[in-house]
Amino acid sequence: MEVIENDIAVEWGVAADNPFKPREGQCCCVCGSKLYVYGGVIQTNDAEMTETKEMLNFDAETMVWQKVAYKNEAPPPRSAAALSCVGNKLYMFGGLNQTCGWLGDFHVFDTETRTWSSVQAADGPCPRDKLQSVAIGTKIYFFGGFGPKATLAMEDDGDEEYEDEEDDELPGDQEAAEFGWFNDLYVFDTVTNKWSQPLQMNLGVPSPRAAHGLCAVGKSLVIMGGRDTEDRQNDIHIFDTETRKWDMDINCKGRPPSPRSFHTISAVGDRVVVLGGRGKDNQHFDDVSIFSLDTKEWYQATVKGKVPSGRGQQSVGVIGDKLIMFGGTSNFSAEIMQCQATHNDTVLLRTEDILGGGPTGKKPNGHAEAS
What we know:
Helices cover 1% and strands 44% of the residues. The chain has 371 residues and is mainly beta. The protein has a single domain, classed as 6 Propeller (Neuraminidase). The strands form 9 sheets. Strands 29-1-32-31-30 form a 5-stranded mixed sheet. Strands 20, 21, 22, 23 and 24 form a 5-stranded antiparallel sheet that branches. A 4-stranded antiparallel sheet has the order 2-3-6-7, with no helix packed on it. InterPro entries: Kelch-typ_b-propeller, Kelch_1.
């Protein structure tokens, strides 16, 4: 597709140093003026890699990182869980633990009392990791992921990684299970404490996938990219949570980002910002792509400042007039099936730059389009 010439220009700035250990596979969400990150894999003092149950937060007003001191016992350590905020509470589902395997537990953290509690609710998703979640009002929407499928055989796509992640061994109690990707949509109502699966009023459901991007623009869910049974993708899907219909007529204009997984998508006004990710050749991206939900156009922004190196698995949140990005991994080795670099930087973009500018009405060769 042809690039849409535009004058959108963003500039990366350095937000703060993180004094804590680098980590990968952490989940994150925004609560008030803070970006919270939970879990992930860190390197111990003995150079061993292990999951953690630490929670950190970054205050966008003071630009300071701190470790959250729990008042009671935290859930088991994990990576690649889903975390969303409703009110002053953080809701965490799923993830992967090297000892326990894929997790299907559900926990809530009260940011005011700093206490954890377990959510007991029937009919939720089965255990999985690399799913995504987002809150709209008092409801949290969960989509996709990868994990054991007890009754469904996994399609064989010839990918020995199975799940597009660097897990060394299958946990003992799940070795006999079949594994695969999911495309189910679950909703958790934080008022009634009940799970549901909305009856989707039309076809057009995204293919089963994991490590995709998910965000909410108004009352709509936006899903982009991720890894499915075929490969890494760059498709975009929109679900109206009020009509419960998938948009079947997304006639996108402009050039979309390259196919990727382990990226993030974030809503800024009616625009969706795509950052980072790992491509089909295991390369990592440092571009900034923007999708307008209003015009259904893709724009590639001009990027200035100290551009962060290409990466995936980063934590991103929009707080006030800032888009904050923390950490991530890069330098994937096909030999050991792992990323060899883990980042610990905290950088930011200004939302006014993301919302500013638009198509210039010129073709890439510089000639103005006919009126």
